[in-house]
Write a structure and sequence with these properties.
Distance between the termini of chain B: 62 Å
CATH architecture of the largest domain in chain A: 3-Layer(aba) Sandwich
Largest sheet of chain A: 8 strands, mixed
Strand order of the largest sheet of chain A: 9-8-7-4-6-5-18-11
CATH class of chain B: Alpha Beta
Radius of gyration of chain B: 21 Å
CATH topology of chain B: Rossmann fold
CATH superfamily of chain B: Thiamin diphosphate (ThDP)-binding fold, Pyr/PP domains
Oligomer: heterodimer
Shape of chain A: globular
Order of helices and strands of chain B: EEHEHEHEHHEEEHEHEHEEEEHEHH
Number of strands of chain A: 25
Number of domains of chain B: 1
Distance between the termini of chain A: 24 Å
CATH superfamily of the largest domain in chain A: Pyruvate-ferredoxin oxidoreductase, PFOR, domain III
Strand order of the largest sheet of chain B: 4-3-5-6-10-9-15-11
Radius of gyration of chain A: 27 Å
Number of domains of chain A: 4
Number of strands of chain B: 15
Largest sheet of chain B: 8 strands, mixed
Largest interface: A-B, 74 and 62 residues
Structural class of chain A: alpha/beta
Helix content of chain B: 25-40%
Strand content of chain B: 15-25%
Number of helices of chain B: 11
CATH architecture of chain B: 3-Layer(aba) Sandwich
CATH topology of the largest domain in chain A: Pyruvate-ferredoxin Oxidoreductase, domain 3
Structural class of chain B: alpha/beta
Shape of chain B: globular
Chain lengths: 610, 356
């Protein structure tokens, strides 16, 4: 949406040239007023029109009364990363009028509640103001303050449907699905949506030049958030024990796991649970429970965010050294310390890679969207079991809690868990007393383990204190170093078995643009935009640590590599410097860490300024 | 070294239980704790209890944290899996293991530092959740491995080896357990094996959290004059308030009731705790009364011991212990085949219709 699409006319805001299926708008409301369902309705309707769309909820760490925004971006080319340029803003919150009005692009529109006059100082002469008497309409047509507040939201959905040409049949269909069992509510919603729609049609030129039109971009897609997708992955991987402590933004992962377990994991005859979910007293205990359950043979996980991961690091070290499989989902938020709990960041990359004291190094997976959250949530259990070690899935608030349109999740019914080297009673019988817990029999750095309760010959004492290859306590130099060196080899050996990076090469490119996780959309958009400007760059997205051999190869192949990530210190870049042979002069950083999802302009501006 | 191997050859005439195992089969390697340490006597009582209960060692999970107490699971049941984790976090690890496989017989051995200082939160929450485990605190009032600092169970006014007097108030695990709803609460003394063995047996068979606080004098750092956790002080102030026997399910109570015989409490597997002697005005099933009584005896300078409180498990056994609260299936979760846990491709397809 470059400035050259705007045609200046004398007096008043410039007219905006017609643009279809390439727009972004934003709704500013107050949290706790029920706007989430209205906003979700808009996003779903656009999705069902077949237009690639994303919905991002920018919300406060608060229950009621503070400003909150919902941003919707629809883009026919599939560029749905966050953008900072909004064609239209629905200003429902007087407390943020000033800042909301400022964010509209020149020639754009501000929809406001004209039941009251807009404060004079908010006027901008380069944007259009669309007044809709939302409060008045709802007061005139509905009874009860709660209903009026809710219906005011549905009214603006109706007005937006008219302005942006959103298919009203789809909107009505969605309302019918939502309120199938509540006829009275459905009638109210129908009335509210028509009030807004009709008002806009009567008073404005509908649709606006920037609007939507049906296309066929979403036939094989779904809308899902990363926490839901990861939870589903845990169910499909066969996880039976979850232990956690509530923390934004990871809470909805366990909430979703609970809901899916209740749906899929109830014993059909007794109605009892084929799962156990423990809300622990803190993250230390949650991690301990995961270790205990994994040690006993269950697939077990926890879900947390940065502050929780800090508390878990004691147990992470134990799991690493005693070689206990354990799965950690870290839905990153803004740190350090409490930071900004409802804002997004990639600030835990370095910490997760080496969490806990002593020599440790951990396998970390970096999904980029909910689809990969699902796939990696299955993969992570296989990796933890196979390498008998803690494994982390690092997502972030944007991936975890926002709605993404992604290709449908797929499942192969022939999948069976890779439980790694676990000796059965028969194996132990056959071994006739030869089992020793930390003996590297196969030469791959991975020793066989046994589960309690299986066979007397499998017994050993799991300990975080110094131990030798036989599992005995030791304070002797060589037997201790022998075990620690083997564990190091084991983790290094995992690299080729981890997800390879995603790479997109362009003919003749000498610049590498690499990134991680949820920055993918913004970076790919930048790659396209740069290509339009005649600059060819190669793209790589790192998907796991320790780094796959392809990562180093890519870095070596480029004179300069720009590492795009969401933290202050260039944590991925530092890891690349430490863990590959690439010269650090070949690695430059493009950083954004303000707490909102990365946008294309961060990448372009970052490149321009280096 | 924390252990010394013992010879594996046993005397042929040793008594065997119904599993064909001798007491030696329930031992571990030799202890490396100080000679005379109370903990070793507790280990001996644990071995006796497991042997008498005829529990197969490999079905047991031995859990511990850090400290002298944390070392002790090495010294019993060598054919059981053990987990010597991090300081104060044994309850969480046990909770996870028990969640995954409730058929494991879980015994946790902790100390006063492990449970009442660094691990106080986890200790408390394991009781709230009523984890099905025997939880032993080997309580000596000091940190041994770091050479004699007061622990949180050190009594007000007790003297350290170097003469320093404790001016902080103690945390009493028995009163805490009564407060937090523990369903089996006992106090004993490492020097009283006759009392200890039936309590350990009862604790192992009790469905839910069995908290056993055992005064276990530290011969090196806390066995001097002026200490309230010494052998001498404990013996002088010892009051065997409650005497209770463990009666296994199959066995009938044949002995005639002695004077003072008060009641028999049946546990979920049919075992019973038979209270032989309790004070006249004492009801071991009345939580509030037990609490008041113990407080009263403490004020009188006594160490009241025995199975002090026992809650009867409701007939259906559900809803009170961890798995009852969780509503889990009877089969341990670890035994569930993957096919019964994964909903499959068709269900995923169906589910995703909601995501459009």
């Amino acid at each position: 949406m470059a400035l050259d699409t705007q045609v200046l006319v004398n007096g008043g805001p410039p007219a905006t040239a017609s643009r279809v299926n390439d727009l972004a708008f934003k709704i500013g409301t107050v949290n706790g007023t029920g706007s989430a369902s209205a906003n979700g309705l808009l996003r779903s309707a656009i999705f069902r029109m077949g237009i690639p769309v994303s919905g991002k909820n920018l919300f406060p760490s608060n229950i009621q009364g503070l400003p909150t925004w919902y941003e919707i971006r629809a883009n026919r080319d599939g560029h749905t990363a966050r953008t900072a340029r909004f064609d239209l803003i629905v200003a429902m919150n007087p407390a943020t009028y000033a800042r909301d009005v400022e964010e509209v692009t020149t020639g754009g529109w501000v929809m406001h509640d004209s039941s009251w006059p807009l404060p004079r100082d908010l006027n901008r002469d380069d944007v259009h103001f669309l007044g809709v008497p939302l409060a008045k309409m709802t007061v005139d047509n509905f009874e009860g303050s709660r209903v009026r507040i809710l219906m005011k939201n549905i009214c603006y959905v109706g007005a937006l449907a008219a302005l942006l040409d959103i298919d009203m049949e789809i909107v009505r269909g969605l309302l019918k699905e939502t309120f199938a069992a509540k006829a009275k509510l459905l009638d109210a919603n129908f009335l509210a949506i028509d009030l807004g729609y009709d008002y806009a049609r009567e008073h404005f030129d509908c649709p606006l030049p920037v609007h939507l039109a049906p296309m066929d971009g979403n036939e094989d897609s779904i809308v899902i958030d990363g926490n839901t997708a990861a939870a589903l992955g845990c169910v499909y991987a066969g996880a039976t024990v979850a232990a956690w402590y509530p923390i934004t933004p990871s809470t909805s992962l366990v909430d979703a796991f609970t809901a899916f377990c209740n749906r899929f994991r109830k014993d059909p005859e007794t109605g009892r649970n084929r799962f156990a979910i423990v809300q622990a007293e803190d993250e230390l205990a949650a991690a301990g429970m995961v270790l205990g359950a994994s040690w006993a043979g269950a697939r077990s996980f926890t879900s947390t965010s940065g502050p929780g991961l800090s508390l878990m690091s004691e147990f992470i070290g134990l799991a690493y050294y005693a070689e206990i499989p354990a799965v950690f989902f870290d839905v990153q938020r803004v740190g350090p310390s409490t930071g900004m709990p409802t804002r997004t960041q990639q600030g835990d990359i370095q910490f997760a890679a080496y969490a806990s004291h002593g020599d440790t190094k951990h396998i970390v997976l970096f999904p980029c969207d909910p689809r990969e959250c699902f796939d990696f949530a299955v993969k992570v259990f296989d990796l933890a079991d196979r390498f008998q070690t803690p494994v982390f899935v690092l997502t972030d608030l944007d991936i975890g809690m926002n709605d993404w349109a992604v290709p449908k999740l797929e499942w192969d019914d022939s999948y069976r868990p890779d439980r790694g080297k676990v000796l059965s009673a028969e194996d132990l019988e056959e071994a006739s007393g030869a089992f020793r817990r930390y003996l590297d029999v196969d030469g791959d750095g991975i020793a066989a383990r046994t589960l309690p309760g299986v066979h007397p010959d499998g017994a050993f004492l799991t300990r975080g204190s110094g131990h030798d290859r036989y599992g005995n306590y030791t304070e002797d130099s060589e037997p201790y170093a022998d075990v620690l060196a083997r564990i190091g080899r084991k983790i290094e050996g995992a690299a080729p078995h981890l997800p390879a990076p995603e790479v997109r090469l362009r003919e003749g490119a000498t610049i590498g643009l690499l990134t991680v996780g949820g920055c993918r959309g913004a970076v790919l958009e930048a790659v396209d935009e740069l290509a339009e400007q005649g600059v060819d760059v190669d793209y790589m997205r790192v998907r796991a640590f320790p780094f796959h051999p392809d990562v180093e190869e890519f870095l070596m192949d480029h004179d300069v590599n720009f590492v795009v990530e969401q933290n202050r210190d260039g944590q991925l870049r530092k890891l690349l410097i430490t863990e590959t042979r690439v010269d650090k002069d070949r690695l430059a950083s493009i950083l954004y860490y303000g707490g909102y999802p990365m946008s294309c302009h961060h990448v372009i501006d970052g490149l321009a300024s280096t | 070294m924390t252990h010394i191997a013992k010879p594996r050859i046993h005397h042929p005439g040793l008594a065997r239980n119904r599993l064909g195992l001798t007491r030696r089969d329930y031992e571990g390697p030799m202890s490396t704790l100080c000679a005379g340490c109370g903990h070793d006597s507790i280990t001996a009582a644990i071995i006796e209890a497991f042997w008498e209960l005829e529990i197969a060692p490999h079905q047991v999970a031995k859990m511990s944290g850090i400290g002298c107490s944390g070392k002790t699971p090495t010294y019993f049941l060598k054919e059981a899996h053990g987990f010597n984790g991090v300081h104060g976090r044994m309850p969480a690890v046990t909770t996870g293991a028990h969640a995954a496989n409730h058929e494991l017989v879980c015994i946790g051995v902790s100390g006063d530092g492990d449970s009442l200082s660094i691990g106080l939160g986890q200790f408390a929450h394991a009781m709230r959740r009523n984890i099905d485990m025997l939880y032993i605190i080997e309580n000596n009032g000091v940190y041994g491995l770091t050479k004699g600092q007061f622990s949180a169970s050190a009594d007000y006014g007790t003297k350290a080896k170097r003469g320093e007097v404790n001016r902080e108030h103690p945390i009493d695990p028995v009163l805490l357990a009564l407060n937090l709803g523990a369903s089996f609460v006992a106090r004993s003394f490492s020097g009283d094996k006759a009392q200890l063995v039936p309590i350990i047996k009862g604790g192992l068979r009790h469905q839910g959290f069995a908290m056993v606080d055992i005064i276990s004098p530290c011969v090196t750092f806390n066995d001097h004059r002026g200490s309230t956790k010494s052998y001498e002080y404990t013996r002088d102030h010892y009051n065997e308030l409650v005497q209770a026997d463990f009666v296994p399910p199959a066995q009938e109570i044949t002995a005639s009731y002695e004077a003072g015989d008060v009641r028999t409490v049946t546990m979920h597997d049919g075992s019973r705790m038979r209270f032989r002697k309790v004070p006249e005005d004492y009801d071991p099933q009345d939580r509030d009364q037990v609490y008041a009584y113990i407080r009263d005896r403490q004020r009188a300078g006594e160490i009241a011991t025995g199975l002090l409180y026992l809650e009867e498990v409701p007939p259906d056994g559900e809803g009170t212990h961890f798995h009852g609260i969780q509503g889990t299936v009877d089969e341990p979760l670890v035994n569930y085949p993957f096919e019964e846990l994964c909903p499959g491709a068709e269900a995923l397809e169906e589910l995703q219709r909601r995501f459009r």
